[in-house]
Amino acid sequence: MRVIGRRIIQLVVVFVVVTFFTVLLISLVPGKPEIVVIPFDNPQHTQRAAFRKENNLDRPLVIQWEKWAGKFVKGDFGNYYQSTGTDPVAKRIKSSAPVSALLILYTQVFSLAVAIPVAIWAAYKSGSRLDKLLNATAFAFISLPAFAVALILGYFLGVKYNLLPTSGYVRITDNPVEHFKTMVIPVLSLSLGQIAVYMRLLRSDLVSTLQEDFILMAKAKGISNRRVLWRHALRPSSLTLLTVAGLSIGTLIGGTLVVEVLLGIPGMGYLIGQAVLARQYVALQSSVALIAIVFVLLNFLIDYLYTVLDPRIRERT
Amino acid sequence: MTTVPPEVSPLGLTLEAAPHAAAESTATRKKGLGIASWLAIAWLTIMVGSAALADVLPLKDPNAGVAPKRFAPFQSGGPILGADANGRDMLSRTIYGGRISLIIAVCSILVGLFIGGFLGLLAGYFRNWLGNILVGLFDILLAIPQLVLALSLVSVLKGDPNIPEGFHLPIILVLIIALGLVSIPILARITRASTLSWSQRDFVTAARAQGAGHGRILFREVLPNVAPAMFSITLLGMAIAIVAEGGLAILGVSVEPPQSTWGTMIATGKSELDGAPFILWIPIAAVFLTAVSLNYLGDVIRDRFDVRESAL
Amino acid sequence: MTDLTADPAEIVEPADPAVGEVLLQVTDLSTSFTSDRGTVRAVRDVSITLRRGRTLGVVGESGSGKSVLARSIMGLMPSNATRTGSVEFGGVEILNAPPKAMRKFWGEQMAMVFQDPMTALNPVLRVEQQITESLHEHLDLTKDQAHDTALALLTSVGIPEPARRLRMYPHEMSGGMRQRIMIAIALACGPKMLFADEPTTALDVTVQAQILDLLQALQRDRQMAMILVTHDLGVVAGRAHDIAVMYAGQIVEQASAEALFARVRHPYTEALLKSIPKLEMAKHTRLEAIGGRPPDLVDLPVGCKFAARCPYAQDRCREEEPELLPDPDDASHLVRCFFPVSVAASAALQATAPVAGEELA
Ligand SMILES: Nc1ncnc2c1ncn2[C@@H]1O[C@H](COP(=O)(O)OP(=O)(O)O)[C@@H](O)[C@H]1O
Ligand code: SF4
Ligand SMILES: [Mg+2]
Question: To which H or E segment does residue C325 belong?
Fold first, then answer.
């Protein structure tokens, strides 16, 4: 319990520092941020004045943060300014965030579903030609950025053979079949690298687990190879996998942003990409803060899961 | 079985080889550099060499239309790697683009190496409040996904170049600062992990017993041993930076014309996917081959380093 | 005799010999491993006959090939191993049986208790799962039946509060308890044959005798055949019917326990006997250790493998390899030596030798 208490304090400190950084962002803009954010203002510059006031830009940073945090927790993420009108960032995030979350979820599930059996197979046949081939392939995939895969797949599956849409997004509630069709290229693009990372890591972990006495003991019980591998060998290694899956969410988030922009998927990446081009720093600020908070929370959760899943650690907490 | 989570870079490379993985490769690695290592070194040499000598090499102007638009590569009567949508020479553009990509990658990792490496050494060596504070700092820097952090820094620092007010840093410098900042915690954590294990060795205790000061122990005794790990992660970090620049370019925050990078070549070339995809494949191949070479060499060094360590 | 190699799909039920009849017949079994250094000849030309209800003690220094022998008989081999010879279990040749066919034997017909219960039990699975999985596999028990069987098993190996223990993880128990759990796992499906590979080496001295007594009692009750592997002659004294002494992968002396302790014939066995701690000795007396090291199994010397360390070695020993032959006075007593320990010397030694295992307790 004390351990968890300390972790929660750490968590709060990280939240404060990270959001402080995002609040600071606007002050880092060269020149007057309000001019950059609202280049199309009326001659009286009322919008710009309102912007300064709204974001407390004339007050000390600590106050800026305090006011910002107060609004943020209430779901007020500031405004998105366009020459055609101003709308709340929260509305945009509300429609974008689920798309990215779904994309990341699909990617993680698919990557693990592929990587685990392949890693088990490679570890079982470790040293064989197949194992070496898999390892080399994985190495290449690790160096192939997601945006490159997206373009390559887009070209072959979309342009050349016209099997799948290369851009756009359909909600699952609107049309499940089209939804999955639009998700194939982005999910594959993001997955190849993930699969390679998981596979290499799990394989090497399994190879050492398979040397353990308890594996020989399990074999000596006469249970099936499948059970020896999946239960006795994978179970201990799955803890390592869990940590890596958590850590890799950071990479995945980055990759998702880029792939969304490339494939025109209206997720957080698309939102951020647009915000960056239109210099909508408030939208950027809120999106970054949200992403960081979710990322930190996920890792906190995984840390906690780790202690729950490993009986040897659970004992001590 | 590992109960300690392995160090993983933002690209997901495991940064600390599992002990048996090193043992497994001992037999093969002892023989000297394999052919793959030489290929990687050759590719990097060509890239760095042509980037450095771009101005004196007989290259076409990378920004002038010199050939028919979208001229396909490997055809007689035109540029060898073809021409882009504006008729600009792809070979020349790839070399000049690579020059900026490489400058950004190398400089940002050097920032990370000096700051992150130094802080990592301190954090690994001083296992007191100082070490704890530094580790906390690394954790905070890692709390924002790397690309998101870099993107927000660049887009903010870049501001709006059309609005002359305020102090604008050159965009290349902005990219270097942002990617450098992002690489600090990565390099720091690896350096710290390596320092932790080395600073507990007997020779460090012996040096301390002889009255050596902290500075001397850190730089004379610990640093030389930690250096291979730092070098290995520096190579991996450069690969990450090159890929990250590509991502930033696609998100719209890299260099502006007439400058270009591999990333901006990909970002602007993506509209050519229908008609002349080679305009994309060439910079993508350059990014991939460079990243693969750096990753591979980083891996080789790490394995060798692990072997050396286990031989002690 | 049926041969399992003929059709791997066909799984032949081994015969169920009555107590006193031959269960295991090992003939000229050799095992080698390919390694970076060359071929490791871990076991050479071992022949063993084991009847139901009897215990064979296999004794030898660490590295002499005892574990490899036990695993070779069971067929639990790593991929770099090659075995030759013959292993007949219940009249069925199992040496070249594919792993799939062997799974019908493992756990159900023959089982193994490993040396270190800390590493041989899966750290992240509950005891109940580790016991019941072979019950589900071999006996097709339902969940409730398996649970009840597991409870009964824990009781039979002397574990108090079995219901609570079933829910525990291995690390939550003491070494002695863990070893009892491992024995319960091995016995779960009522095997006819039990291999106990140094079952007490990793345990506290205080619980070693308890575990050995438990194994002995279980072996008697269930009329199993047992191979008890140890590096300590004192452990098998009084607990094994027959004893095989191994050195560098070979059996160097084999006899009934009685005959062996009455008349030690091989110089190596003699040396082992001298190294057993005895009660009358002061607590910290240095034991007479055997000088030198066993030979390199990759590069075995010609002649007798023990020659380099043998006090009686002569020129012949270094040129020619002795065979395992019956002693002229007792045909059932096999010795691999040109110049066996004289009967007189053996008698002198016997005066101080342990007669039963109790000395160790
Ligand atoms: N998988 C293997 N590969 C290579 N050598 C092995 C392997 N298993 C065992 N050995 C070697 O076989 C010899 C006998 O080992 P073992 O049977 O474990 O001895 P012990 O009598 O102590 O049980 C040792 O020298 C060991 O190194
Ligand atoms: S054969 Fe010779 S060397 Fe070998 S044990 Fe007998 S006496 Fe000793
Ligand atoms: Mg052994």
Answer: strand C325-327
Nearest partner of B133 among B183, B194, B188, judged by Cα: B188
- CA C313, C318, C323, C328 dihedral sign is negative
| CA C242/CA B15 separation, integer angstroms | 55
- Testing ligand 1's pocket by substitution, the residue of C46, C67, C201 carrying the most ligand atoms inside 8 A of its CB is C67
pLDDT band of B9, cuts 50, 70, 90: very low
Atom of ligand 1 nearest to the CA of C65: 17
pLDDT in tens, A178-211: 888 888 899 999 999 999 999 998 998 899 899 9
Q: How many domains does chain A have?
A: 1
B173 located within any domain = yes
What is the C-alpha to C-alpha distance for residues A233 and A208, in angstroms, rounded to an integer? 9
Q: What is the ipTM of this complex?
A: 0.89
Residues spanned by the domain of A168: 92-278
Q: Which of C39, C40, C268, C305 to mutate to test the pocket of ligand 1 (most atoms within 8 A of CB)?
A: C40
Report the alpha-carbon angle A147-A150-A155, nearest 5: 130
Check CB contact of A315 with chain C, cutoff 8 Å: yes
Residue B163 forms part of a structural domain: yes
- C183 CA to centre of ligand 3 in angstroms: 17
Half-sphere exposure of B190 (CA within 13 A, CB side): 32
Does the residue A83 lie in any domain? Answer: no
Chain A residues near residue B22 by CB distance under 8 angstroms: none
Number of domains comprising chain B: 1
Q: Which of B144, B273, B239 has the alpha carbon at shortest distance from A262?
A: B273
CA of A46 to the centre of ligand 2 (A): 107
Q: C145 CA to middle of ligand 2, Å?
A: 56
Tokens for B104, please give them. 């950004």
**Cβ-based neighbours of A191, under 8 Å, separated by 6 or more:** A107, A110, A111, A114
Which residues of A fall within a CB distance of 8 Å from B8? 197, 244, 247-248
Range of the domain at B292: 33-58+75-311
CB under 8 Å to A170, separation ≥6 — which residues?
A: A178, A179, A181, A182
CATH number of the CATH domain containing A144: 1.10.3720.10
Record: contact C116-A231, CB cut-off 8 A:
no
Domain membership of residue A15 (yes or no) is: no
Relative to the CA of C69, which ligand 1 atom is closest?
17
Whole-angstrom distance, CA of residue C188 vs CA of residue C135: 7
**Secondary structure class of A286 (helix, strand, coil):** helix
Nearest chain B Cα distance for residue A277, angstroms: 7
Cβ–ligand 2 distance for C141 under 6 Å, the answer: no
Q: Is the CB of C68 under 6 A from ligand 1?
A: yes
Ligand 1 center from residue C64 Cα (angstroms)? 8
pTM recorded for the entire structure:
0.85
Task: Enter the tokens of residue C169.
Answer: 């993880």
Show residues of chain B in contact with A202, CB under 8 Å.
none
**Ligand 2 in reach of C264 Cβ (< 6 A):** no
Q: Which partners does chain B have (≥3 C-beta pairs < 8 Å)?
A: A
Q: What angle separates helix C143-156 from helix C127-134, to the nearest 10 degrees? A: 110
**Nearest ligand, measured from the Cα of C250:** 1
- With beta carbons less than 8 A apart as the criterion, state whether C224 and C194 touch: yes
pLDDT, tens digit (0-9, with 9 covering 90-100), for B61-88: 777 777 677 767 777 776 777 777 777 7
Task: For residue C81, give the ligand 1 atom closest to its CA.
Answer: 1
Q: How far is B195 from chain A (nearest CA, A)?
A: 22
Query: What number of CA atoms fall less than 13 Å from residue A115's CA on the CB side?
Result: 29
Supply C72's token pair. 């070779």
The string of pLDDT tens digits covering residues B143-178 is 888 899 999 899 888 877 777 777 778 889 999 999
